Hints:
This protein has helices at residues 2-7, 24-32, 45-51, 68-89, 95-105, 119-124, 158-172, 180-192, 198-208, 214-226, 251-269, 276-280, 289-307, and strands at residues 13-17, 36-41, 56-59, 93-94, 129-133, 140-144, 230-235, 241-245. A three-stranded parallel sheet has the order 1-2-3, with helices on one face. The protein is of the alpha/beta class.
Amino acid sequence: xxxxxxxxxxxxxxxxxxxxxxxxxxxxxxxxxxxxxxxxxxxxxxxxxxxxxxxxxxxxxxxxxxxxxxxxxxxxxxxxxxxxxxxxxxxxxxxxxxxxxxxxxxxxxxxxxxxxxxxxxxxxxxxxxxxxxxxxxxxxxxxxxxxxxxxxxxxxxxxxxxxxxxxxxxxxxxxxxxxxxxxxxxxxxxxxxxxxxxxxxxxxxxxxxxxxxxxxxxxxxxxxxxxxxxxxxxxxxxxxxxxxxxxxxxxxxxxxxxxxxxxxxxxxxxxxxxxxxxxxxxxxxxxxxxxxxxxxxxxxxxxxxxxx
Length: 308
C-alpha cells in the first residue's frame, strides 16, 4: 500500500475496508503523506481505535444502532462535540470549518445517521448554537448563543421539543446519555470485576465486550459512579480509588433517580417546566403513574440533599 502511495503520487484517496486496529499505523502513515484515508468496517471497540487514524470512517452496521436510546446517545455525543469546537474557537465559524473540526475528532460523524437531512438541520436542532447566513457572500456560519437559549419552535411535537431541552440541560450538568444496553453490560462487567480503579474497569470492559466502544464504556462507568451504583471501597497501594457495585439495588431506578435529580436542578435554574410525559422518554425503567410519582419524589429528595 505504501509502495502504491509513493509510486503513484496522483492517487490521493485510499479506501480500506477493515476494523482491525493493526492497520492504524498504515492509516497514519498515509495521512502523513498527505493522503485522504477512508476506513470502512463494523462498529466495534477495535474500529473505534482505527477511526481516529482515518480522514473519515464509515460504519457498515448502522442498523445495529437505531434503537431510540442509542440514537439519542450518539446524537448527544455529536451535539456536545459541536459545542466544544465552537467554544474552543471562541468565534463564529463557517459550517465547513465546524464540520471538518468534528470529523477530525470523530471521523465517523455523519448527520444522516442521526436522522438529519443536512448539517444545517443538525445544527439548528442544538439550542445553544445559532446558525446564520452571511449577507455578503451567502455563506452559512455557526456560533454559540450567549446566555440560556430558549427553546425555539421547530417542526416537532411539544414533547419532542421538551425532550431535546431536557437532554441539553443534562449535558450542562455533565450527565451524558448512554444506551440501556451499554449501561447494563458495563454494570454486569463491574459486578464481575469489583475492587478495581475506573481505568482498570474500563480496560476489563473493553477486553470482554464484543460490541461496546471505549466512549460508551467510559460514559456508562461515569453514570454508574454519579448514580452511586459504583461506590469507593478501598484504596490501592498507589492511592487509587477502587470501585465496587453497591449491593441490592434496582439499577434502572437508581440511575433514573440520580438523572432526574440533576435534571430538576437544571430546570429550576433555567426556569424550564417539568412535563411527566416527556420525562418518560429519558428514563431507563418502565413506570406506571404511581411508580413515576414515587420516582419523582425520590429524585426531588436527592436534589434537595445535594443542594443543602
